[in-house]
Amino acid sequence: MPCIGPHLPRASLPGVLLVAAAASLAPAETSVKAHTLFAESTGSRFKPIGIYNDGQSTTALEVRRATTGGTISGTFTNSGSALHIAGDNAPSVAVVLRDDGTQGDVVAGDGIYTLWPITSAKATDQFENRLHWNTYHLSLDGGGGTISTKLGIVDSGISYATRVLGTDVDGHLITSSDFIVNIQDDALVDGSLSGNVSENLGAITDKLYSVFDDRFDYLVFISVLKTDNGTNTYFGFRNEVSGLGNSGFGPPYDSTGLFGIPPAEKNSGVFNGIAYINDGGSSIYGALHHELMHRWGVSFGSELGFPFGSHWNGVPAPGEAYVAAFVGALGGAEVTENGDNTITIRAVPATVYPPLELYLMGLIGPGEVPDTTYYRYNQSDQSIIEIFHLSIDDITTTFGPRNPGVADSQKEFAAAFVVITPPGEPLTAAETAMYSVAAEHFGSDAPGDGAVSGALIRTPASFAWGTGFRGTMNTTLFVRPSPVIRTVTVDAGTVSLGITGAAATAYDVYRSPDLVTWGTPIGSATTSNQGDGTGTGTYDDTTAGAGTLFYRLAEQ
Known about the structure:
- The protein folds into four domains: 17-21 and 165-298 and 409-474, no CATH class; 43-154, Immunoglobulin-like; 313-399, no CATH class; 484-555.
- It is 10% helix and 34% strand.
């Protein structure tokens, strides 16, 4: 996808720099259709998209069809027998989906066919044995095709406390755990080049910054609805680094004031861009490393004498393609020359950022970057057209050295994970845990397990591990300060406590006459949200009476 310079007002926002992910060695297809739920004639989702493995939490598979009413039938491929479909966990289950308002179907005749109930008791084996992600396939009878849909299974012992941060302009609650924010919005981010995409970005960021300050380098937007016409995308709003290249995200720019993201009154110069993951499922698998890496590249263009696009592989002309002979977050592959002027390409997922990407990120110096090789070839038979070698000296001579260099570059980053759900569909406890685990993992120092499932690492590496611990990504939304009683006032027998603590957090208030006997809470106090992870609150003890009293707080 081309990069577009920032020149237009926020009303349309097509001027935001953006790069879409390529799903394979071929370029990603981009649609210009506006998003609606199930925008295509067919589509599907699990609702909710994550369930506990307690054998009791239920989800439904919803399939949108062009027809309405009655039933449709098919065969459900139960990968690993992980799910119980109305009690049946055979590897292949014959199923009937209903659009008649019965057996879990919400509305008869709306074209949404429902399979319910679906439960799971599968042991989790990913993300430190806290999650299990998989894609399930439904083959419809009568040549109706195959529909593939992702579902997350969460260990039933995992939970994350949530808090209410505020109410948005549409009257929906904004809630969060320590690692994710849930925003309900009916203009779901599409991630394609449709006319309303950037308005969606603005609406959602406005809601986010109504409860947070500008303290995140990156926002990660995740839609629980995967749209057929959407593409994982990085939207760039600011770059203060030079030496990255002269195309795409390379030249320094600042579009934050032009587009009001973040709002002017909150803009402190921290925010850089938004990684949008158009995937109701595995939000952290590969795509997140990939989209965030677009913050720094690829922005070489053709000035180095090779037709670079925005990835380490691409299609510069019809019938031709190119690929880097290394594996990175932005593509590339393992390439073998066969000795007959052809190559064999083995696409494998990246487990760490390679040296060239680490240099662009500012995490290593130019002296640590080896020469890299690129092959331009005919797609029909993978015969070699050109072999191109690139040195770090070629890059610095053409674009100048990276500035700031490794000694002065930023190495500690912060990201806010924002999960976007339709209005009236706040995240369930299992979904909150599922996305919180993914966000917490990305900000930890945990390695990936190295196992490959299809084209994905089963448990991907954290950002820090992928950089060789040269950089960190803080995904914690809130500091967890201990609650403190800052002020105490007494008036006509009422003791008023002024409290500070974590943002939007409920605390039990205890009272003791002797610092020994505390008993049960006498009440509770909830702190406000200051936008920086802290909050303040008050509690009035109207039954204090006379004498010396002691108070303490405990988070609920």
